[in-house]
Amino acid sequence: MPSDLSPDSPADPPCTCTALRRAARSATAAYDAALRPASLRVTQFAILRILARLGPLPVTRLAEEAALDRSTMGRNLDPLERRGLVHLAPDQGDRRARVAALTESGAAAIEAALPHWRAVEAEIGARLSPGALASLAALAPRS
């Protein structure tokens, strides 16, 4: 490969994609660690919060709200359903689809996790420069 095209050239800035992926993995690990006392992972916590905010949703819509694909959402819902934090039932309008609903135990899990989430949220937020979160959010427009 010619030296001017080398991806490791010291003249090139760091890869933005790589930096964002590392930051996302680091943030996810921090949230997961903070939520460990509540026995939740950050993705599970986010799913519970979406259901608390929007009410029962078809799984496909829930996946869209959480920015997950449908099969990943299914894998995330299984342990939440086993723990009784969500209830899955056939959609009355389309019996092939399922609707996810937050249970009372799920609402209690959110309450137990909120202090841990707020602490890590403040910690990570303090490390971001003003406007950084809005700029990052703008990279991923809602579908």
TrEMBL record:
Alphabetic keyword roster: DNA-binding, Transcription, Transcription regulation
PROSITE patterns given in the database record: HTH_MARR_1, HTH_MARR_2
Gene3D superfamilies membership: Winged helix-like DNA-binding domain superfamily/Winged helix DNA-binding domain (1.10.10.10)
Keyword Transcription attached: yes
GO molecular function: DNA binding; DNA-binding transcription factor activity
GO terms, biological process: response to stress
Stated name of the protein: HTH-type transcriptional repressor NicR
Lineage: Bacteria, Pseudomonadati, Pseudomonadota, Alphaproteobacteria, Hyphomicrobiales
Gene this protein is translated from: nicR_2
